[in-house]
Amino acid sequence: MTEVLLRGVRVHHGFLDRARQEALVESLRGCLRQAPLFHPVTPRGKRMSVAMSAAGRFGWVTDRKGYRYEERHPDGMPWPEIPDDVLEIWNAVSGSARAPECCLINWYGDGAKMGLHQDRDEIDFSEPVVSISLGDEALFRVGNDTRGGKTESIWLRSGDVAVMGGEARLRYHGIDRIRHGSSSLLPQGGRINLTLRVVT
Ligand code: MD3
Ligand code: FE
Fold first, then answer.
1. How far apart are the CA of 169 and the centre of ligand 1, in A?
2. Does position 193 have pLDDT exceeding 90, yes or no?
3. Which atom of ligand 1 is least distant from the CA of 156?
4. What does the domain layout of the chain look like in residue ranges?
5. Could you say which residues bind substrate here (predicted)?
6. What is the pLDDT of residues 102-153, one digit of tens each?
């Protein structure tokens, strides 16, 4: 395992071995049976290329009404519980005394990306965000606490875990592209990113 610090974002390359990655994918399949992926629509009416779902008390949703956390999936069901193997990773790397209240599940198919944005729909920015990458490699970009200025990029690979705490918590960040087919973890290709957050 190697650790890289990128503008305050701590990336643990190779944190999860293949067996743990496969077990996580199985756990997530259970979650997605209960709360299926959907393509959120931004407040401006654009369908996001990333498909999403969530586990935990809250899921993050967006539609014409705006961005927010909700206790139910857009189809009306409560979100599934966060799987134990996911909680274990939070406990190992977050340094937080609290439990995560949201495990956002982002699914990137061929061509999906996520523009530069800040995560600021949570209440307490002293709590970190933990990200877990599974499947195809993704080019992750980190900038500053305001729009513009210099950015730095790094490829996130399957099994990498990143921690965004302290000075990194309000950095602009995004996913520029996916190397489709670069991992054999998911049979149809694609990438899953989990982000664990304290919301309230
Ligand atoms: C840096 N997800 O869900 S994870 C998101 O790979 C999101 O799906 C991306 O951005 C993905 O909001 C990037 C890495 C990440 C997550 C949260 C951050 C980096 C962050 C919060 C602050 C700074
Ligand atoms: Fe984000």
1. 10
2. yes
3. 6
4. 2-197
5. 60, 67-69, 121, 147
6. 999 999 999 999 999 999 999 999 999 999 999 999 999 999 999 999 999 9
Separation between Cα atoms, residue 85 and residue 79, nearest integer Å: 17
* 192 marked as part of a ligand binding site: yes
- Alpha carbon nearest to ligand 1 atom 6, residue: 193
Two structure tokens written together for 142: 């980190």
d(CA 141, CA 77): 34
Ligand 2 center from residue 145 Cα (angstroms): 13
Per-residue burial over 84-112, b if 16 or more Cβ lie within 10 Å, else e, is eebbebbeebbebeeebbbbbbbbbbeeb
Q: What is the pLDDT of residue 94?
A: 98
The response to whether residue 162 sits with its C-beta less than 6 Å from ligand 1 reads yes
- Residue 63: what pLDDT? 87
173 is in an annotated binding site: yes
Q: Quick one: which ligand is closest to 195's CA?
A: 1
CB 169 within 8 A of CB 136: no
CATH 1.10.760.10 fits 2-197, yes or no: no
- How many whole angstroms from 50 Cα to the centroid of ligand 2? 12
Q: Is the pTM of this model over 0.90?
A: yes
